[in-house]
Amino acid sequence: MPYSQYWIGATLALLGVGASAQDVVRIGHVGPTSGPIAHLGKDNELGARMAIDELNAKGVVIGGKKVKLELQGEDDAGDPRQGTAAAQKLVDAKVHAVVGHLNSGTTIPASKIYSDAGIAQVSPSATNPKYTRQGYKTTFRVVADDVHLGGTLGKYAVNVLKGKSIAVIDDRTAYGQGVAAEFEKGAKSAGGAIVGHEFTTDKAADFMAILTSLKAKKPDVIFFGGMDSVAGPMLRQMKQLGIQARFVGGDGVCTAELPKLAAGDMADGQVVCAEAGGVEGAQKKGMDDFRARFKATTRNEVQVYAPYSYDAVGVIVAAMVKAGSYEPAKYLPVLAQTKGYQGVTGSISFDAKGDLQGGALTLYTYKAGQREAIGVVR
C-alpha cells in the first residue's frame, strides 16, 4: 500500500470514519460514600455497578445499536447541600439517568434539579412520601414508602409485639421524621398509647438524657426513626440504663452492620425492623442468588439496598431498550409505564406518581449477631 493511502486510512480510522463507534450510556449514582453511613452508600453503589458490569457482559442493544454502559458515582455524604451539588454535577456531565439518592433528605432536594433537566431519577432507598408527590415526571422509587413501612411497623408493635406503652425517637431528618410520624399513626390506629416522643440528630452519639426521660415512662417498645449509625450507640446506652424495651426501626436500622455498631449490646429478638421490599416463594431464590453473586464479586455482604440499586439500573435500561433510545425525553414515558419488570427484589410496576405498586416489606430480627427474617408482609 502506498504511504499516502496508508496515512489516509489511518487518519480516517482515528476519526471514526467508516467505523461503528460504540455509544456510551452514562448512568449516575449518588449516595453517602463518606461519613457515618458510608457503608450504606457504598452498598448502593456496588449494587448499581454490579448491574452495569453484568449488562455490559451480556451486551445491551438500544435502537439497533450496541451500547456501553458507564456508571458515574458521586458522594453526597448524606448532606442535602452536598446532594444538590452532586446532582448538578451529574446534570452538567449530561448523564442519561440517575440512581439515587440514598437518604430522603438528599433525594428530595436533588429531585428538582433532575426534574428541571428532564433526567430520570430512580431512588433505591428513599422512602419519604414527599419525594414522589411533587408533581415531577422524573421521580421513581423501587421500594415501598414510609406510609406503608411506618404504618405497618406501628400496627405490628401493638398487635404482635403487644406494645402497651410506646415511645418514639426520631433524628429530625426527612427520613427519620417521616417514618416516625407514620409509625405513630399506625400504632394509634391499632390502639397503642404513645407515652413520649423525643428528638435527636443524625450525628448524635449521646442519648442518655432522652433515654433517661423515656425510662421514667416505662415503655415496652421504643421506635427509632433514623439510621443504624445512631441506632447502634443508642442500643448500647439503653443497655447501660437497664432499659429492656423492644427496639423497633425502619429500613435505615435494618442492616447487617447494626450488631457491630451496637457492639453486641442487643439481646436476641430485642430489635425488630423492616426492609422496604420483600420476596417470598419462588422469587426468594433470585434474591439468594443475587446475595451470593454480590459477595463473590464485591467481597462484601449486602447491607440493605444493593439489590434495589441493582434493580434500579435494570429497570432504567429496560425502558431504554423498549423505547429504542437512551435519550430521557424518549425513554421517560416508557419508564413511567413500567409494569411487571422482574427484578431480584420482585416484580416492579410504577403508579402514576412513580411509586412502587404493591410494595412488600420484610420484617427482621437479630439473633446471635445475625439478621434473621421474620416474614414478608404486604
UniProtKB/TrEMBL annotation:
GO BP: any one term: amino acid transport
Highest rank taxon of the organism: Bacteria
InterPro entries: Leu-bd, Leu_Ile_Val-bd, Peripla_BP_I
Species assigned in the record: Acidovorax soli
Transport recorded as keyword: yes
Family annotation (PANTHER family): AMINO ACID BINDING PROTEIN (PTHR47151:SF2), LEU/ILE/VAL-BINDING ABC TRANSPORTER SUBUNIT (PTHR47151)
Alphabetized UniProt keyword annotations: Amino-acid transport, Signal, Transport
Name of protein: Branched-chain amino acid transport system substrate-binding protein
Ranges where the Leucine-binding protein domain occurs: 25-367
Transmembrane intervals: none
Family to which the UniProt record says this protein belongs: Belongs to the leucine-binding protein family.
